[in-house]
Each structure stands twice: as structure tokens, then as C-alpha cells.
Amino acid sequence: MSHRVLTFAHGSPEFSRGGAETAAHALAGAYRAHPEVERSVFVGRHDNGRGATGRLIPLRPDEYLYEQAIDDWFRLQSANPEAMLDGLADLARALRPTIIHLHHYIHVGLEMIRVLRRAAPGARILLTLHEYIAICENQGQMIKTGSMDLCRRSGLEACHRCFPARSPEDFWLRRHRILRYFDDVDLFVAPSEFLRGRYVDWGLAPDRIVTLENGQPPMAPLPPRPLGPGEGRGRFGYFGQITPYKGIETVLRALAAVPPEARGGITLEVNAAEMRHQPDGLRERIDDLLRPLEAQGSVQWRGAYEPDQMAERLATVDWVVVPSVWWENSPMVIQEAFGHGRPVVCSDIGGMAEKVADEVDGVHVPMGSRSAWSAALRRLAAPDAAAGWDRLRAGITPPPTAAQQVERLLELAG
After folding, report:
1. Taking burial as the number of CB atoms within 10 A of a residue's CB, which of 6, 85, 306, 357 is the most buried?
2. Mean pLDDT score of the chain
3. pLDDT score at 306
4. Alpha-carbon torsion 306, 311, 314, 319, what sign?
């Protein structure tokens, strides 16, 4: 069977470097390369400052930017549903896709699903879920408001306690509105079994959602970082965004808790963009932690990076740290670390604990525990622990490629 595929992401990697956007773009390329696909088109949502125009802007052959926005974040309602008819629906009618693969609906609205279903009634619509925003009003993090405690199960009363201005009835209506739009989806894709379980608990039928990891471009393992005489594997790398949920504050506090005389073999390289878009309190706390650690040489802030710089930055570290204080789903940085042969030190919850096998290809650390992270940094950096790093590196299984993911998706799409 010959397929025509429309892949949509809530952002374009041209302007947004998030894991979901990057995975969706790689997937569109893998669809394009498959012999059973005659055409693959990628659409990435983008805000050009002109509002929700619904315009499709050609970026390169078979790749577009799409101008759209959310009007009501609680209901996940588009700012201008009618405008979609001028863009996405026209493209779908012209392409006549057999498969529509959506990577998210945020920044666009749930109405997109209905619009595409009507424009391409014969297409199989797949929706990859990247976090828990349908379940959780708190940015899809499943974190309690005001406390940063983990939310282990959603519910009308529990959601009301997090957002007292919203009644339990409001949350009932929100859930059923989302489920009505989800009726137009043929198959949901969960990049982790943990996320799949959360959505089944919330209301998706188990036979409508499959677990399938996001595919990556082929990656070559890097050689181990050369060690000096008596040196341990003490260079740790943090990669990604700086947000209250990503746990960088936990690692900095853990490093600061190591006595200066015992900190000589430990260095944390922070590969992240500036924090100007983060809350003032978070920026101030991180700045206060960074100043003495940078002055003592324990932290090196390397700044933002482009995807093609990932390998060269990974080459200078021994470990990749993923200290998130929310559940995560399937952090791309874990796949990138494994693809390049670097063990991962991560929080022991959610998708992180699922993707990293403790003492097989990485190490689990109790989520949010400064003392546990401090002890882990010291233990892993010790010169006599280098053999353990070799064992964990040997235990790494390369992540699936986007081409492998496409094979499975075409099989599922029928």
C-alpha cells in the first residue's frame, strides 16, 4: 500500500528545540524515506506575532509553518477555529493523506482534530501524547500546585483542591470535552508505558493506546572521555531547559553540599539556554547557587546548543544527569545519551525510571533528595568507581531509530 502522510507538531524545530518537536520532525523525514510512502508533509505550529491567522507558510518543500494559538487553556480551545479551514484543512484536502500523525494539540486547540477528520475522512489519525495535559491542568505536569508534591492519581476533587477557583463540575466538563475530541483519533501512541498507564487510568480504552518509543536519527557511540592519572569519571552533564520541574536546582544544591575539599573530582557542565523566561524566584535561587560553584570551578555553564552540537558536548562528560522532579514521559536527552554511549543518572520516578535501568545502563537517585544526589555524585566520581562506569556503558542498548518507529507505525496504521 502506498501512503501519504501528514505529520503535525505543536512547534517547528526551526524555532523551538523541544523534544516533541524534534521527534516529530525526525519522524516526518523517516516517513519520507520509507518505500511505502509516496509523500510526507510536515507542519510545525509557530507564533509569528500576527495572532491566530491559520496561515500556512511554506518553509521548504513539503514543510510548513502554521500560525495558530490557544484561546482557552483550561478547555484547550483554539483562538480561531474557523481559521483552520484556510490552512490545515485545505492542505489535508489537497494531500489526501492516508495517515495523519499528530504530535500534540497544545498551542493549537483540540478543534484541530475534528477539522482534520472532516477534511480527510479516510485517513487514520494517530496522536502521540507527550505529557499529561489532558489529565492535569497544572501544565500537564501532574504536580500539586503550591507544594510541588507529585500527583499520583487525578480526580475531580483532587483537581479542584489544586485549582479552587474551578469546581469539580468544571473538571468533569473539561475531561468529557477532551474525550469527545479524542473520539476522532484512531490510535494513541505513548512513548512510555508509564504515560500509557496514566491515560488508561484517566479514561482511554487500553486497546486504543500503544506504547512506542520516539525514534531518533542514527547515532554513533562516542569513545570514553580520556582520563588523567588517578582521575575518576566525575564530569556530569545537564542538557535541556531550565524550569522549576527539571531539577537543576536539586543537583546544584547537592553539589554545594559536598565539602569543597571533596569536590575536586566533580564538575557539572550545564548545557542550557538563559533563564530570562523563568520566574524571578527560580532565577535568583539558581544564580545564588551558581556564583560560588562557578568560582570554585565545580560548575561550567556552557549555554544553549544546537542539535548538531550534542555529540561534541557529550564527548566532554562521563554522565548525563536527568534530575527532574516531575514524572517525565520519555526525555529525549536519555535517548541521546544512550545513542552516544553515556550512562544516565536520573530521578527514580515515571518515564525516567522506566527508560534507565538502575545499575544496568545508569543509576536511579531518589527524586528531589539533595542528600541522595550529593552522595551519588561523590560515589560515581570516585576514581575507584571508574570500572562501574565501564560496566554501565557496556549495558546501554541503542535507542530505536525513526526508521524503526515508522515500520511499526505503518504496521499499526494498517
Report:
1. 6
2. 94
3. 85
4. positive
What is the C-alpha separation between 250 and 232, in angstroms, rounded? Answer: 23
Scored b (16 or more CB within 10 A) or e, 115-129 reads: bbbebbeebbbbbbb
The rounded distance, in Å, linking the Cα atoms of 395 and 338 is 10
All domains of the chain in start order, with CATH? 3-217+401-413 (3.40.50.2000), 235-394 (3.40.50.2000)
CA distance 28 to 245: 29
Which pLDDT value is given to residue 209?
A: 98
Please choose, from the candidates 33, 37, 42, the residue with its C-alpha nearest in 3D space to the C-alpha of residue 3.
37
Q: Mean pLDDT over residues 278-301, rounded?
A: 91
Distance CA 115, CA 129 (A): 19
DSSP structure class, residue 399 = P
Predicted local distance difference test score (pLDDT) of residue 291: 94
3-state SS class at 234: coil
Tell me how far apart the alpha carbons of residues 39 and 138 are, in angstroms, rounded to a whole number: 38
Question: What does the chain come to in residues?
Answer: 414
- What confidence score (pLDDT) does residue 19 get? 78
- 17 pLDDT above the threshold of 80: no
The CA distance from 87 to 238, in Å, is 39
